[in-house]
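hey so i finally got around to running the thing on that chain from the lab meeting. sorry it took forever, my laptop kept dying and i had to restart like 3 times. anyway pasting the input first so we r on the same page abt which one it is
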Amino acid sequence: MLTDEERLQRSRETVDQMQDTVRQMREDNERWFKARAAERAAEDLRKAQGKWGADDWMLLLARFAIGFMLLMFCVLIYTTLPTIINAVIKATTQWQALLR
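ok and heres what got predicted. didnt touch it at all, straight out
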């Protein structure tokens, strides 16, 4: 059976381990944030110089593709909407004639 002194010592060791873990996590976070800030600064500098990377070209291509698809959808709606409206009007008049 553990004495009070041994229990106290174990709890202190546990607390010390937890504090070390938290300190290590903070240091890792600070290191990561500094590295990320340096990457962002380098990327901003590259963009300010007018240089494009592969990611920038892919984003531009994706935006053009999405814009083209939206344009095609609008054209499809513009061309088919009158046909749909006329079909609904004809069906409505036929049902009205049948119900009279």
